[in-house]
């Protein structure tokens, strides 16, 4: 099986299904850790509907979809925050394809997209319980840094210079 990664409209049915899977997983992980329960279905629907992903549309953003053996398997998104800074977001792979190299490919594709948008630096935030994500970012050359936002769910912030060879 092989990986392919390509841009996808943020509002396509494929993007919507992957956003739902992503949000369900990270929300359930948070609630299970902090409250011992899964996300309330009404809250899940409200939050999914409230975050359209429109910031991941050209000309200042891009949503990428990874396919493994032709099946939609994950996403990464990038959006410009200013002329030099892009934010990496929505990095997700279905559990069944984790450990097959797709996450690094998605992040590198997002870095290429950010360079194409003119960015020279990528930033991101993540939570403490997403240890796999933090390990991935460190392995790919991201350095933990001071907070760059006040998101109530952000606990770790990372940055990486996007040179031609990074």
Give your account of this protein's structure.
By secondary structure, the chain is of the alpha+beta class. The protein has a single domain, classed as Gcn5-related N-acetyltransferase (GNAT) (Aminopeptidase, 3-Layer(aba) Sandwich), CATH 3.40.630.30. 34% of the residues lie in helices and 28% in strands. Strands 1-2-3-4-5-7-6 form a 7-stranded mixed β-sheet, with helices on both faces. Helix 3 links the parallel strand 4 and strand 5. The radius of gyration is 15 Å and the shape is globular.
List keywords for this structure.
acyltransferase, transferase, Aminopeptidase, 166 residues, Acyl_CoA_acyltransferase, alpha+beta, Bact_Acetyltransf, GNAT_dom
Element layout with pairings:
Elements: E1 3-7, H1 13-35, H2 41-50, E2 61-68, E3 71-80, E4 85-93, H3 102-116, E5 121-126, H4 131-139, E6 143-145, E7 156-161
Parallel strand pairs: 4-5
Antiparallel strand pairs: 1-2, 2-3, 3-4, 5-7, 6-7
Number of domains: 1
Just give the CATH class: Alpha Beta
Instruction: Say what the CATH topology is.
Output: Aminopeptidase
Unreliable spans: none
CATH-assigned homologous superfamily: Gcn5-related N-acetyltransferase (GNAT)
What level of helicity do the residues show? 25-40%
Arrangement of strands in the largest sheet: 1-2-3-4-5-7-6
Task: Give the helices and strands as they follow along the chain.
Answer: EHHEEEHEHEE
The overall average pLDDT, rounded, is 93
- Identify the CATH architecture: 3-Layer(aba) Sandwich
* Biggest β-sheet description: 7 strands, mixed
Distance between the termini: 27 Å
| Structure summary, number of beta strands | 7
Global morphology: globular
Q: What oligomeric state do the depicted chains represent? A: single chain
Structural class: alpha+beta
Which band does the percent of strand residues land in? 25-35%
Domain N-acetyltransferase: 17-163
Keywords: Acyltransferase, Transferase
Protein name: GNAT family N-acetyltransferase
InterPro entries: Acyl_CoA_acyltransferase (IPR016181), Bact_Acetyltransf (IPR050832), GNAT_dom (IPR000182)
